Amino acid sequence: MRSVAALFAIGVLALVVQGALARMLPPPWCPDLAWLVVVGIGLRWPRFVSGIVLSVVLGYGMDLLSSSLMGQHALLRLVTFLAAALAARQLDLSGSVPIGIFVLVMTVVYGLAMVLSLSFFVDASWPGIDVVGSALIHALVNVLAAGPMIGLVERLIVRFSDEEVGRHGTAPLGFDGGRGGLL
């Protein structure tokens, strides 16, 4: 439970820092720190149900702070978590290069999903070709910020999972020797 609270706290802190950075940096140059926390949770968090809840809650927090459609970020953060969790189980994403490639691709997919959902619900027009350059800059900025953010998420998971092992007598990171339990 303490690890869930710590991940929630780092997600909220990432939203605050991202909001402060957004006031100083132009949009493509501002990393999406809260989204990277969700990616880190998907890549490193072994508890599927609590990861889903964390991702949706952090996405909904982003919906409250941004001018997007209500629930848009929550839905897309859920999809991001599911994609990251699936990729972590199917691919070897242990190095910085594979994680960087994953974050680059997922940033572009996330941006495309934002545009598609807006055009579906609001009948917004498609962005021009000039947006492609901004999207690639934003993806590269996210790649640069991915290492520290995912590393921070991983350190929190390991730290608080060790404390939960001592209190509950279970194995680290939620691997409980076949006793079941997704939370």
Structure, explained:
By secondary structure, this protein is mainly α. It has a single domain, classed as Arp2/3 complex 21 kDa subunit ARPC3 (Orthogonal Bundle), CATH 1.10.1760. It is 75% helix and 0% strand. The chain has 6 helices and no strands. Helix 2 crosses helix 6. The C terminus is likely disordered.
Helix content: over 70%
CATH architecture: Orthogonal Bundle
SSE string, helix = H, strand = E?
HHHHHH
Low-confidence stretches: 165-183
Q: What is the C-level CATH assignment?
A: Mainly Alpha
Roughly how many Å apart are the termini? Answer: 9 Å
Mean pLDDT: 84
How many beta-strand elements? 0
Q: Return the domain count.
A: 1
Please state the structural category: mainly alpha
| Count of helical stretches | 6
Question: Key terms for this structure?
Answer:
183 residues; mainly alpha; Arp2/3 complex 21 kDa subunit ARPC3; 6 helices; 0% strand
Give the topology.
Layout: H1 2-24, H2 33-44, H3 48-65, H4 72-90, H5 96-121, H6 130-168
Helix pairs in contact: 1-2, 1-3, 1-6, 2-3, 2-4, 2-6, 3-4, 4-5, 5-6
